Amino acid sequence: MFESAPEFRTVADLVVERIAVHTDHLFGVGGANIEDLYDSLHRHPTLTGIIAKHEYGAATMADGYARATTRLGVVAATSGGGAMNLLAALAESFDSRVPVLALVGQPPTALEGRGAFQDTGGLPGRLDAARIFASVSRYCAKITRPQDICDELDHAIEVALSGGPAVLLLPKDIQAAPSAMPAEAKKAQPRIDRGGPVAAGSSGSPLLPHWDPTPPSGRGRGAPSIAESPPENGFAARQLGGGSALPRGVLETLAEVPAGAPVAIIAGPEVGTADARVELAAVARALEAAVLVTPDAKDAFPNRDPRFAGVVGVMGHPHAPELVAEVQLCLLVGTPLPLTARAGLDTALAACPRVVHLGAEQPFVPVHAEARGPLATLLNELAALASGVAGKARHRSVSAATVDEEPVPISTAAPGSIGARSDRGVLPELMAPPASGPGVRYRPAVAALEAALEPGTDVIADAGNTGAAVVHYLRVPEDGRFLIALGMGGMGYSFGAGIGCALGRGRRAMVVAGDGAYFMHGHEVHTAVEYQVPVTFVVFNNNAHAMCVTREQVFYSGEYSFNRFRAAEIGAGVAAMFPGLPTWTARTLTEFEHALEKARATPGPAFIELRCDPDEIPPFAPFLKEPVA
Hints:
alpha/beta; 24 helices; 6-stranded parallel beta sheet; globular; 32% helix
C-alpha cells in the first residue's frame, strides 16, 4: 500500500503500483504534465525515483538498467520538448530490442486543439505524439479513458518485455482521475503490434510476423535433409521431433554434422537479454565449440574460458573469418549478424557447410536452418541433445557447477583442433600503426583498466575510437556485464546507461567514454553524485571527435579537420563543479594506474580524465589495411 495514501486511488497510483512489480527504479525528468505520476511515486514504499539532467540520459538509464538486469526499464517524462528528448534513446532501445517502458505526459484532453501548451495531440497544425513514438516503439497507445489503463498498461509491459520499447501517452487529467481498476485485473488479450503477435500471459519473445519454422527459400541455401546413411553422430542418434523445441529443419541439419567435426558459435546480445548465458555455456561445452561474440555481446560468454575465441566484426579479431570457414557447423545464437558484427565474415559463412540460427530476429545472412522462440529453451534443448540426455532438457535453473561437469562428448572437436583454444595462447589482435602524439596509448590504457577491474564489475563503453579500443582489447571481468550502444551508436549513451546498470545490479560500474561523448551527455555525472551511485567515469580526452579525425585522415586528404578542438581541462572542471567527487587527471600511464587504484577504493562515484592522442588509429578494421575480422 501507499504511504500517506489519498482518499481515492488515481490512475497514476495504479501505474506506479503495477510497474513496481517489474522494477525497483523509475528514471526520468519531471514537468507539469507528468507531475501526478511523480506524486504517486513519492508515496510508493519500494519504487525509487531517479531524476536525470536530460530526458535522453534518463532513457539511457532505463536502457542500461534493463540490459544489465533483464528486468523492465522504466522512464517517465513530460510533454513537448521533454517527450521529444526521449526519441534518440528509445531509437537505440528499439534497434537493440531492450525492454523499456516510456511513460510520457500529455496536456489535459479537454485542451487538445485549443491552444494547450506543448499540444502534440495530432489535430490539424499540431504534432502527433502517437505517430512520432510509434516509429521508435514496438507498441504505443494514448490513454483517453481511465478505465482503459489496466489493459493498456499490462499489454505495454508485456510487449516491452518481449523486446521493447513500449510507450504510453498519459494526459494529465487521466493521470489524476480516479482509477477504475476492477477487483481482478483483466488478462491482456492477444494483439498484433510491431513486435509480432504476443499471446496473453506470454513471457518469451514474440513470434515475428514473418516467422517460419522451415528454412527460408531463395536465400542461397538448399533445404537440408537426412541422408539414408548419415555420418555416425550424437545428433543423428536422437529422435527428430518428439516434441522438441527445435524445428525439424534444425535437427536435420545438426544430424549431418560428422562426429568429431569442429564447431563454432557466434553469440549475440540476445543471450544477455534472454538471461541465457548459462545455457550457452552448456552448449559450448557439450559441443566443444569455439565461441566468438559480437561487439555488443562481450559478456555473453566468459572471456577467460579456454573456448572463448574473441570478437567478430569491425572491432573484432583478425582470425575470426578463418575459424568460421574451417568449421563444419556454425551456430548463430542471439544475433542476426548486422554489419558491425558481420564485417569480414560473409565469405567464411558462405564456405561453412552448415549455418544454423537461433534467435528472435530474422538473420541478415543465408542460413541452412533456424529456430525462433525463447532462447534459453532452445539452448537447453540443444545442450541436452549434444550431451546425450535423450528426451530430457536440462532444468532452467541449471547451476554453474552443473555446466562445468564433464559432458558426454557428442560430435565434439578432436583435441588440438580449431575448437580447442587452450593451445592458441593470446588472441591475435588488429595491428594499428604506431602513434607518436601526446598522452597514453589505447592498448596500455585498456590493459590498465582491465587490471583494475574486480570480478563482478560492469563495463559500459561509449561510441567512437575509445569504444573500439575497449571492445577489441578488454576482457570483461568474471560475472561482469558489458554494455555498448551499437543499434544507433549514439554518443553519450554510456553515462546514463552506467548509472542505470549500477543501480540495477547494486555494484560498481565502469564507464569508458571519449571527451566528445562527455560533452554531449556527460553531465549525468551530476546524477551519479546526487544519488551517490558507484560509477567510475573514465574519459579519454584527446580534445577531438577522434573517430571523425581518423576518417578525415584515412578516407580524405587529411589536410583539414572540422573535428579538433581547443584544449579542455575536463578533470579540473568536474572537480570544480563537484567538490566532493574524487577526481583525477592522468597524463601518463603510471598516473592512470594510480587513479584507477584510488577510484577502486571509493564507495561512491569517481571521475578520471585520461589524456590521449587524437591521431592514434584505433583497432577498427575499416581504418586498417590488413584483413578484417
